[in-house]
Here is the input.
Amino acid sequence: MSFTTTIQFAAIESLEELYGRQFSEKDFQVNETKVEFEGDYTVVLFSLLKPLKESPENLGKKLGDLLIKKHANLFSNYNIIKGFLNLSLSDDSLLNLLKENYNDVCFGKNPLNHKKVMVEYSSPNTNKPLHLGHLRNIFIGWSVSEILKANGNEVYKSSIVNDRGIHICKSMIAWQEFANNATPQSTNTKGDHFVGNYYVKFNDEYKKEVKEIVDEGKPEAEAEKEAPIMKKTQQMLLDWENGKPEVIELWNKMNGWVYKGFDETYKRLGTDFDQTFYESKTYILGKEFVKKGLEDGSFYKKEDGSAWIDLSDVGLDEKLLLRGDGTSVYITQDIGLVKQKFEEYQLDESIYVIGDEQIYHMKVLKEICRKLGMPFADKIFHLSYGMVELTTGKMKSREGTVVDADELIDEMVETSKKHTEELGKVKDFTKEELKQLYEILGLGAMKFYLLRVDPKKRMVFNPEESIDFHGFTGPFIQYTYARIKSILRKVGGPIGSMVNGQWSINKLLPLERQLIIFLEKYSNVISQAAEELNPSVIANYVFHLAKTFNSFYVEHSVTNAESEEKKLLRLQISMMTATVIKSAMQLLGIKVPERM
RNA sequence: GGCCCCGUAGCUCAGUGGAUAGAGCAACAGCCUUCUAAGCUGUGGGUCACACGUUCGAAUCGUGUCGGGGUCACCA
Here is the structure.
């Protein structure tokens, strides 16, 4: 049980003894004591004054005295300022905590709760490479999954690949028309970029054709429909749906190139999925489902044969489920996938990491499920995150202002190389070790930069700031870890044999106390991050921890401590800090180096 | 226009009912013969968009106003 909870319960118990009244956790707060006051935790008395008809001084004194009497091992003393009862934890309670946990790699994680959760993220289109927006999505999805695991859930990571539709046919047509059978291999291009280039090529060509037709005097709307390349593309989509062998073959070939490219990027990012769904399969499930719904009267048809559901009673609108020609729309495949997910995995919750521009869409999906009496409708959760903007405004693929994921990774890794070489601390590393270190640092900087902000909020990507390795950054925390490891290497040998000695330290120094108390909070931090589905909670915590350790580090020597006992104490504090840093960074998907 | 989100230091962000609102970056001033200076210490910087209300207490809750964004497709 955490200190906060322990104190809360102790106070409830003492209040009952003093006043014969039952209070709950909601009736008063236990907070951390502000640094400018003496004490570690504070019981806020204001809300208790009226029900108990007491003055702050009296209540504080009575409660403080009793708490200390009953929990002599936990508290050392207290003070009252206004309505705040500030309690100081005893050295013993802190030392015990340290002794029991300093070497526990699982510290802070919660036991299994047998809840099954699926987290869907990344969900790319197979017509262009991943960009900065995907990176935020992927990092959030992966991190939230790990956080949920740490909180005791059984988590499945999944991805839905948008591998069909008119946009996919566009790159296929462009390749057919202009590539002369070129391949990623023949051009030495990464597969996803290779295909993406043909998607761009399509748009260029399309624009050209539209302009020609407009120049002949036709209105733009008509020209857009008539452009030959667009007509070919629409025909290709029909051929695809009808399973025309050449088209399917081309589709398989080009998607294969893209997947190979994605896999490379995913691997480099250290991300993975337990299950990949394909829209080319789920849209069929969705269609069948709509057909059934039409038969049993859940949905209705309009004159042109299109299928609809009426959601106007829940403040939404009539929603189209299938077009008149029987082809599916965006929501169709989502309905198919929802069913499949819950039936196949028996989920307790299904989390969708999708941008906040799709809030309305996800609401519609949920309402449709609810309307159809699907039992899992309320277990759908849209983890919506804000768009990543550039300092110059929004990213727009049309204007070529999209930040490419692979390029960005390369840049970050290159920057870490530059910094490392300038500092010259790892000259004895082998080539392979250096390469690994650059990846760890570059990716660490990038992941931390994108995860340190609350997912719900829009964020601005500042290229200069993102490659900064000082302050509130991944490398700062990695550096703190490497520093600790350096101390531990210097001491050498197993610390375990030294820890069994008796403690006779009777005065923990402020920074020693601060660190132990802060380390203790880790479990609460994981719970909070899991509850809010918010990795930035972890990022802020681990930064603050590293910061505190660095102050401790310059203030107090570990290896040359005043006494053997102090040395031991500080070694344990250092070890536990390293363990928690490593663990917290792992929840963010960031590795920590032994040296840097 | 309807609905949703956001507005905190020059910039990027924490803080979501408690004490004198915090970090990082940027600026300025210090600290390496001592465990890694990717570090540490200090200084300056605020009408928490605005108004009213609820409360012993509001950046935090409510209502309204202003400003920014998203969305309301037989696009995905």
In short: Chain A is about 55% helix and 10% strand. Confidence is low (pLDDT under 50) at residues 497-501 of chain A. The CA atoms of residues 341 and 485 of chain A lie 44 Å apart.
